[in-house]
Amino acid sequence: MIAQVPLAAENPLIPPIPELIIGLIAFAIVFFFLAKKLLPNINKVLDERREAIEGGMEKAEAAQADAQDALEKYRAQLAEARHEAARLRQEAQEQGAALIAEMRAEGQRQREEIVAAGHAQIEADRKAAAAALRRDVGRLAAELAGKLVGESLEDNARQSRTIDRFLDGLDESAPTAEASR
Asked: Considering the entire predicted model, what is its pTM?
């Protein structure tokens, strides 16, 4: 039959001494191998990784600083461009206002020239009409006087003096007639 081992003597939590010694020797060999070979390699990789991360962070900070500088330069250029555009707009408005004033003055001058030329033309036409009227009235008056008197008044000098006296009398009576109205 099966030999019965006393159950009370064995504790399942405590291993037997020979197994404990062999386990400690195996642990020491694995620990020594890990401490001498694997741990320096792990530390080296971790140091390289730390340096890469720190270098990357420094590069990122430098890139961020460069980007911030570029942004500030861009904003300064943008503000300068806006200022320049406002200055150009102001100059254009001033030039436009000056041009409008100049064109108005030129238009006023041309209008005055046209009005003066019109007045001169009217005056010349009035004088020409008065001269033509004097000739026609004189001729008609001489013909009428000749018919009334029964003789011809062909003497031009006499006819001209008579006509001038008649028209001067009309010119003098015209202002008094207008004043009486």
From this structure: 0.39
